[in-house]
Amino acid sequence: MRILLVDDEIRLVDGLRRTLRLERPSWQVKTALSGLEALQLLQRESFDVLVTDMQMPGMDGASLLREAQLLAPETVRIILSGHAGQERIQSCEDAYHQYLGKPIDPEHFISLLDDMNESTKRPESLRARRLVAGLPCVPSLPSLYEQLVRVLKEGSPTVEELIELLRFDLGMASKLLKLANCCGKGPGDTPMDLYQALSQLSIDQFEQSVFRYGALAVAPSPAPSGLDLNELWEHSNMVAQVARSIALTEGHDATAVNLCHLSGLFHDLGRVLLASDPALDYRRVMELTEAPNRPLVGDLERNFYGTTHAEVGAELLWLWGWTSGSATWSDTTTSLLWLPPMPSSCRFSGSRTPGAPVSCCPRLRLMPMVPLICRNCAILATSSGPESWPSTCP
User: When you count CB atoms within 10 A of the terminal residue's CB, does the N or C end of the chain come out lower?
Assistant: First the structure.
């Protein structure tokens, strides 16, 4: 792995370089004492990770990050600073992935870089990173964005009122998590639900990010590449609620329950990212999934892009500091499995018609007694056999 450390404090960069070379001798570490020197290195060489201070003479960290975002969008960009100031951090939030405060715990720093290095060894994760590393935000639905602006401008909304709105838009919800992670909190303080994230960030800071710094972007279409965002948002909220119910039923603690809820909420985030990029022509996948004897979405995505929407969504949230590794949502520690769209044999007669009979999918190969959600049917069941499925569509 190739790492570029940038700071005008020579003792700090030399200390970090010695630590990394001692602990991870196979890594290639270069240093720069100014933003301009770092930019010249980026123009000549490629790096997997850029770690920069914010306050430097000449070209500061914010300017360097914006230049690096254009010059090397696939490079992971991290702020390492102790006196940057909240406004400066927020002003360039779209140009970096994570914020770390000084003094940095060497073990935490190396662990973070270890995760980055491990994910680049998996071809699907590496391809997913190339797709999302340059992405500033996830697009929001125009109607929900307008509703958020109206609520904020009316004045003094409560945390509960905002969360009720934010949870219906994956773009707003994912950006809230990133903004909360940029507050300079220590490792272990990662927000595990939207309420905690907004409380940690504060409504004023969130409002400033939206209005002053343009933290959110509006989707140009409510159905990019034929993917209906309204329907997807509703489905994601349903999965999140059922995931939370499963975790509660199984007796997990509050952290695991919140993790399952957020995992359910974001399990299709990667589909939004793939569909929103015109160059990827995601409509091909959408059309093939509607064909008779349709293949699984993940198989199609892997054939077209070399990765899946699960990898893409997980990679983005991990880059933004939420997850502990670049794992797909099916790797959750609870016995929870989030399935891609099922083959046609798994759908209800007449789609989601109340009272329609359930047909079990013969292509499922699952561990015994694992709870599952069928995306198309919205049915909770276990893989122990058809007898565990409800008899009719709810």
Answer: C
- C-beta neighbour count of 58 within 10 angstroms: 11
Angle (CA) 348-349-350 rounded to 5° is 105
Longest dimension (CA), the chain: 70
SS3 373: strand
**CA pair distance 362, 364, nearest whole angstrom:** 6
| pLDDT value at residue 382 | 44
Residue 251 CA to residue 333 CA, distance in Å, equals 13
Domain limits, the chain: 2-121, 142-211, 342-394
Q: How far apart are CA 284 and CA 294, in angstroms?
A: 13
Give the C-alpha separation, 372 to 239, whole Å: 10
Rounded CA-CA distance 145/158 in Å is 17
* Whole-prediction pTM: 0.76
Q: How would you classify the pairing of strands 371-374 and 379-382?
A: antiparallel
Structure tokens at 375: 């995306």
Contact 90, 182 (CB under 8 A): yes
> What pLDDT is stored for residue 324 in this prediction?
42
Q: How many angstroms separate the Cα of 184 from the Cα of each of 178, 201, 314, 329, 368? A: 11, 10, 22, 26, 43
> How do residues 183-231 score in pLDDT, each as one tens digit?
645 444 677 788 888 888 888 888 888 888 888 888 888 889 989 998 8
What's the rounded Cα separation, in Å, for the pair 365 and 296?
Answer: 13
Tokens of 187: 């490792």
Q: Could you give phi then psi for residue 379, rounded to 5 degrees?
A: -110, 135
User: Distance between terminal CA atoms of the chain?
Assistant: 51
Residue 209's identity, in one-letter code, is S
Q: Share the mean pLDDT of the chain.
A: 78
| Closest to 210 measured CA to CA, from 162, 256, 282 | 162
The fold for domain 2-121 equals Rossmann fold (3.40.50)
Q: Cis ω on the peptide bond leading into residue 103 (within 30° of 0)?
A: yes
According to DSSP, the β-strands at 49-52 and 2-6 are parallel
